[in-house]
Amino acid sequence: MYDDILIPTDASPGAEEAISEAIELAALTDATVHALYVVDTTNYPTLPDGKWATVEEALEGEGKRAVDAIADRAADAGLDAVTAVETGTPHKEILDYAETNDVDLVVMGTHGQTGIDKVLLGSVTENVLRESDQSVLVKNIGDRE
């Protein structure tokens, strides 16, 4: 059913739920896990080039740690894993990666924002859902009481 499952991560603690779900699904289908972290260039438009290089390096290091952790979990489940750290607009990079790597399913989390927060902040997950040619499984990772 699924040969390649993409897990985009933002390295947040909440993303753990989506990662767990994706690893379980990959184990059921013996799929290759693709772990992707995108260094979001849209978050730092006013930084001078010298400062951006420092921030970008730190974010790339965070991304490498995040995708390596997913790859380790995939290996523990007996699965093959591929990792990537890209730079750009998150939803565009996720869509490009999924298409380029023939991904069957994208598994990602959402914080479930609604109302004005959603309008003002936008949603990477929503953009992927709206524009993806691949199936997308969304795990709600919002705060729960």
From TrEMBL:
This is Universal stress protein. InterPro entries: Rossmann-like_a/b/a_fold, Universal_stress_UspA, UspA. Gene3D superfamilies: HUPs (3.40.50.620). Residues 1-138 form the UspA domain. It holds the Pfam family Usp. Belongs to the universal stress protein A family. Transmembrane segments: none annotated.
